[in-house]
Specification:
This protein has 178 residues and is α+β, with helices and mostly antiparallel strands. The chain is built from eight helices and four strands; from the N terminus they run ααααααβαβββα. A hairpin with a 2-residue loop joins β3 and β4. The chain is elongated and about 65 Å long.
């Protein structure tokens, strides 16, 4: 069976259970924490995939990766995944849950990149603009990248608005080369 299909099935079942128990938001936070741990601690994957490591130790590691307040449903989900020997797909399951949750709650991810840090008011204004365009909630992040020289780059969904000085200078340079 395909890894993607398995991951989505487990994630759908978890989301359905979490929604019925009215703690989908907290399980969402747990899955974000788990996903972040897989990204930020590369040895986690190899440790969890190690067949010599006892299931109880794997459960303890994964429960710790769920964050400060792991939900009982999230822990039971981990127990099921370990019982079924599907731990190699756990990162994909967490990411699938995050994606399905965002679709269900109409959450869009947005990112604003600027050359210098912007005020909270500017960040809030950009977030409101994206929320108005997407008709939903936006998880908004900002990033400072001095290489764009000035202006900003706004990204959400498949949309990218590049109003950076660097891009404008590159366009002018390419016009001169013609």
């Amino acid at each position: 069976m395909d890894l993607g299909v398995i991951s989505v099935r487990y994630a759908r079942a978890l989301l359905k259970s979490a929604t019925e128990l009215k703690n989908a938001d907290l399980v969402y936070q747990n899955m974000i924490s788990l996903s972040d741990c897989y990204i930020n601690v590369p040895s986690l994957r190899s440790t969890i995939d190690n067949p010599m490591l006892q299931r109880s130790k794997k459960l303890h590691l994964l429960t710790t990766a769920l964050g400060q307040s792991p939900q009982q449903l999230s822990v039971r989900f981990l127990e099921l995944v370990l019982k079924e020997d599907r731990e190699s797909a756990l990162q994909f399951m967490a990411n699938s849950y995050i994606t399905l949750y965002r679709q269900q709650k109409n959450i869009t991810r947005g990112k604003l990149t600027t050359a210098v840090a912007v005020s909270d008011a500017v960040e809030q204004k950009m977030k409101q603009m994206v929320e108005a365009k997407t008709q939903g909630t936006v998880e908004f992040t900002t990033e400072v990248d001095p290489s764009i020289i000035g202006g900003f780059v706004l990204e959400y969904d498949t949309y990218r608005m590049d109003a950076s000085v660097k891009t404008k200078l590159n366009r002018i340079l390419s016009e001169f080369k013609k």
